[in-house]
Design a protein that fits this description.
The protein contains 4 helices and no strands. Helix content is 64%, strand content 0%.
């Protein structure tokens, strides 16, 4: 994003998603590596999501609260 000088809106348009989705992706990149491995270990199930956006938001809030303590 920085290398190619894209804004979040431009990146969203390029990938056909909302700018909010791009923000979510960028937040995931800021999570600790161990947490990302835990999320990836849940797998990718297209017929029924094993983890939802709502669940990821809760994980992110817990992570943020742990950092501020």
């Amino acid at each position: 994003m920085v290398r190619d000088d894209f804004s979040r809106k431009q990146l969203a348009a390029r990938h056909g998603v909302s700018s909010d989705r791009v923000t979510q992706w960028l937040c995931l990149l800021k999570m600790p590596e161990q947490r990302l491995y835990e999320i990836a270990a849940l797998g990718d199930c297209w017929s029924r999501p094993l983890i939802t956006e709502r669940m990821l938001r809760r994980l992110r809030r817990r992570y943020d609260q742990g950092r501020s303590s």
